[in-house]
User: Which sequence fits this backbone?
């Protein structure tokens, strides 16, 4: 009976500790997600900006590679004429539109 009373007295402390642990785990999972998204964006920039990789064939190809921001992109039609800058609309109707 004495053990039961000690445990019931500790219940608010245990409950508070459990809630604190739950918040801590939630914050850690959120930070892991943020780091993963940041790492993906860095890899995407390195992939598209690397001299070792060729530019996308068109804006749709850039969109498939993960580019989601409208702006000027270097594309290469693989026609032997080299790459050139174009405006890519990455938001209208799902994105990936080459605008001339």
Assistant:
């Amino acid at each position: 009976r004495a053990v039961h009373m000690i445990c019931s007295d500790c219940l608010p402390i245990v409950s508070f500790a459990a809630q604190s642990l739950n918040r801590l785990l939630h914050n850690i999972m959120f930070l892991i997600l943020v780091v993963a998204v940041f790492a993906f964006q860095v890899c995407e920039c390195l992939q598209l900006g690397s001299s070792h990789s060729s530019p996308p064939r068109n804006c749709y190809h850039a969109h498939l590679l993960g580019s989601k921001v409208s702006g000027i992109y270097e594309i290469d039609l693989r026609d032997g004429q080299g790459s050139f800058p174009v405006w890519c609309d990455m938001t209208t109707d799902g994105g990936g539109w080459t605008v001339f």
